[in-house]
Amino acid sequence: MLTSEDKREFVIGSFVQLLIILHWLMAFFYAPVDVNQGPVYRIMFLHVPSAITAFGSSLGLCVFSVLALRDRSERLMAWSKGTAEVGLIFTLLTLATGSIWGRPTWGTWWTWDARLTTTFLLALLYAGYLLLYGSMAPGTGRTRVCAVLGILIFADVPVIYKSVTWWRTLHQPPSMIREGGSTMDPEILWTLVAGILVMCIYAAWLVRVRGRNIMLADEIESASYATLSAP
Amino acid sequence: MKATAGNQYLTLVRQGLRAEFVDKERLISPVLFALTMLVLFAFALGDLDQSLRIRIYLAETLLTAIFALQISFSRLFEPDRQDRVFDLLRTYPISYTALFLAKYTLVLILGSATLVPTMLFGAFLHQSATIQLFSWTVLGISLLALAGLGALGVLLSALTLKAQARQILYPLLYFPMTTPVLLAAVQSARLCLEVGLGSPELKSWLGLLAAFDTIYITLGVLLFTELMVES
After folding, report:
1. Which structural domain range is residue A192 located in?
2. Whole-structure pTM value
3. B165 interfaces chain A, CB cutoff of 8 Å
4. Interface confidence: ipTM more than 0.90
């Protein structure tokens, strides 16, 4: 039977899905075709928001980790794990869409470009975090260890973000936020900004749902231990 | 003797060094591993073009040093774990900052014992009549890289102490996090050898290296205590 909380989640989830559909309509029908790249550039509306959400997830992971360390809270730890999972999914999505976009524009699926390599490293760090979390028994020990790692992961994100500026690589430098204003067409810019907002809302919703699921799974695990150890 | 943090630090460094020197295999194996790797690289790469010699030398020796240092770092708490020293230490009213700094000092001493022969042997293998590969400045840059890697190594060693599959998790977390330090060290050392100390780019690369050293040492000092407190 559906509880009122389940119904609320369903309504919020449907609203988020609706926002995604609206953004896709904007990406396909509102934004004009790029003169140089043609329609293939539209993958940017998925690629850039995914990348920003992936980096934003590391900030979320850091914030939840600091709070979990301060409050010794298992609940915040569940949110941290949820954020790492969402971060990993969006990092993989960034790599996949970047690779698909790179094929027609750079002529290759993958190149050892600084931004690509450092983003791949971020995926490895998220995966490492999830492996470490899974390899430890639940409790305050795990909370502390995983929280410390969450903070360490965030320390590496500025390098990934600045890599295109520092190494002047194949990947294009930032064209949205730059000195002298954006070089983008206003319609493209607005579609991109909308995409970033929608993706961030989507990620926040995923973290919320996933955090709740992890807490429920922990409760079930604790209850099963209690049942097994009962006389 | 009064048990100040300074005295505790000195005692822990002495104890750590004694434990390392008792088992000389632990001390020698990273150096032997590094030298073997360099010989294998030299065989695999064969006779190098003059223009590539500096880049290959730096990439090869610094990467080999990082692999070899990982062996030292991952086993940092092994003597303490084997003799239950670690559990005993945690029952004493010692300063965990003193413990971190003692382990960090130990890592710097053992790391230098691996790094210096690696750099010298790498330069020897790739020497030519026209290019001077060994430079004190490059050695200084490598030691600066060791300062950051050492702090990260101690922190990750403590972090994975209680994790299952520690041998797999340690490199999975360590290698992605070394990337900023490795890149900054390679680029600044390359500029030193190819352009000289007057290179305008050198300052920014050294700045990045120093920034990551500071980040890892600060996070190490701040977060190590959290990892040591018994659940």
Report:
1. 42-171+187-217
2. 0.81
3. yes
4. no
